[in-house]
């Protein structure tokens, strides 16, 4: 049994983390810890929960019709063996695979790690590079301007004729607000202010930076 430690997974994500209707798996654990990271709760390798990869793949692929699966994090390349097994099931089902990594393609190839190489071989599009909050990106799919969309196959390429939505807001199983995607700088501050104008108070246990040009999550894990 192969085990993958994840923070969460969700189906029905449209266009914000890859084109089409996708399932997204957020893995747990990241040693890069980029300043300004939106999800510092994914940093600890002991957080989240451990899941059986085969069972996770079955649940994802049985949930609803999907165009593909996106693996984000956390850092997927810190659990390459389990991620590769998940992607193998995804590709065997005829779905496409996007992977977000804070490492560049060149760094990953330089490792000469068979498990990392297998992840890359099973990935259609790699979004690579560390998040740099001083370089906001407005084109979509990426958090900062240094990050690249690297096509590793000819599949799952984003459309060129229209920009993708940056975020998707949904309600979780317990009625909580879930933000999926890569919010542009200032999003959470403007969102909170817009709700306040309508008499709605947004409360959160997360510490958000109250700055118009950078209101991503606080850096502490």
Question: Topology, please?
Answer:
Layout: E1 3-14, E2 21-27, E3 49-52, H1 53-63, E4 68-72, H2 80-92, E5 96-101, H3 105-110, H4 114-121, E6 125-128, E7 148-151, E8 167-171, E9 177-181, H5 187-197
Parallel strand pairs: 2-4, 4-5, 5-6
Antiparallel strand pairs: 1-2, 1-3, 6-7, 8-9
Could you explain the architecture of this structure?
With 221 residues, the chain is of the alpha/beta class. It contains five helices and nine strands, in the order βββαβαβααββββα. The protein has helices spanning 53-63, 80-92, 105-110, 114-121, 187-197; strands spanning 3-14, 21-27, 49-52, 68-72, 96-101, 125-128, 148-151, 167-171, 177-181. The strands form two sheets. The chain has a seven-stranded mixed sheet with strand order 3-1-2-4-5-6-7. The longest helix is centred in the middle third of the chain and has 13 residues, at 80-92. The protein is globular and about 55 Å long.
């Amino acid at each position: 049994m192969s085990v993958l430690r994840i923070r969460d997974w969700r189906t029905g994500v449209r266009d914000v983390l890859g084109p089409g209707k996708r399932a997204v798996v957020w893995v747990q654990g990241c040693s890069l810890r980029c300043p300004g990271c939106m999800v510092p709760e994914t940093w600890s390798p002991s957080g989240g929960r451990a899941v059986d990869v085969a069972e996770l793949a079955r649940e994802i692929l049985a949930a609803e019709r999907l165009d593909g699966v996106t693996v984000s994090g956390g850092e997927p390349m810190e659990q390459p063996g389990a991620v590769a097994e998940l992607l193998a099931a995804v590709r065997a089902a005829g779905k496409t695979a996007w992977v977000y990594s804070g490492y560049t393609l060149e760094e990953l190839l330089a490792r000469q790690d068979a498990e990392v190489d297998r992840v890359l071989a099973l990935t259609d599009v790699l979004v690579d590079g560390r998040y740099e909050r001083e370089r906001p990106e407005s084109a979509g799919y990426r958090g900062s301007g240094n990050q690249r969309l690297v096509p590793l196959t000819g599949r799952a390429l984003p459309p060129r004729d229209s920009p993708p939505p940056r975020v998707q807001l949904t309600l979780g199983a317990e009625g909580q607000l879930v933000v999926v995607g890569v919010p542009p700088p200032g999003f959470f501050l403007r969102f909170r202010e817009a709700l306040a104008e309508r008499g709605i108070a947004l409360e959160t246990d997360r510490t958000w930076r109250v700055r118009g040009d950078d209101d991503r999550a606080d850096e502490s894990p």
